[in-house]
Design brief:
single chain, RmlC-like_jellyroll, dTDP-4-dehydrorhamnose 3,5-epimerase, 188 residues, mainly beta, binds dtdp-4-keto-L-rhamnose, five-stranded antiparallel beta sheet, dTDP-4-dehydrorhamnose 3,5-epimerase activity, globular, RmlC-like, 2 helices, Jelly Rolls, EC 5.1.3.13
Length: 188
């Protein structure tokens, strides 16, 4: 397991080991003991999500769940290729409003750990791209929230207009958004 810090403290890129042979490969996509030995202590996960997006340029985000159902997410790509993004929305954080992005693909096997207190979103870079992510809290529609994808200065690398949900089209701009999160220092 290889761990790489990003420019946002707490957001980490993980690359699990792959064992290739004539059949293909084997990889432990999640192993708490291995991660803890490498120094990353993550909260308990209670829900796994899986979605597929048909078209290149499908953009889902930027999403969060507010406390008391805030979610940390461990994200990977099951098929295809996507650009995954986290934005710090913890009030008082030295990196409030800053973003990091990482390309996650079936080929590279990378994962992104996004703690609670960050927006999450992604755009697909191949047709039929699948994303799979573990969450630290259950889905709570009443706590569900979104910020406009184009209000955080993110370079999505888009070559076409994104395919969006209705909810994501009408989300507020980051500048008009009153975040429910407060900075409490860097945490897993
Ligand atoms: C997120 C979620 C949605 N749903 C339902 C609600 C709705 O009918 C349908 C589609 O929901 P959405 O449009 O919110 O799906 P989507 O736009 O893919 O939302 C997801 O985007 C990424 C970026 C995230 O980080 C996730 O947490 C989640 O917000 O699935 C669940 O049943 N459980 C869940 O955990």
């Amino acid at each position: 397991m290889e761990l790489r810090k990003t420019s946002l403290p707490g957001v980490v890129v993980l690359t699990p080991q792959r064992f290739g042979d004539h059949r293909g490969f084997f990889s432990e996509s999640w192993n708490r003991r291995v991660l803890e030995a490498a120094g990353l202590h993550l909260p308990e996960f209670v829900q796994d999500n899986h979605s597929m997006s048909l078209e290149v340029g499908t953009l889902r985000g930027l999403h969060f769940q507010a406390p008391p159902h805030a979610q940390g997410k461990l994200v990977r790509c099951g098929r295809g290729r996507l650009f995954d993004v986290a934005v710090d929305i913890r009030k008082g954080s030295p990196t409030y409003g800053q973003w990091v992005g990482e390309e996650l693909s079936y080929e590279n096997g990378r994962q992104l750990w996004i703690p609670a207190g960050f927006l999450h979103g992604f755009v697909t870079r191949e047709p039929d791209t699948e994303i799979i992510y573990k969450c630290t809290d259950h889905y709570a529609p009443d706590c569900d929230g979104a910020v406009r994808w184009d209000s955080c200065g993110i370079d999505w690398g888009l070559k076409v207009d994104p395919v969006l949900s209705e909810k994501d089209t009408i989300a507020p701009q980051l500048a008009d958004f009153d975040s429910p999160f407060t900075y409490e220092g860097t945490q897993a």
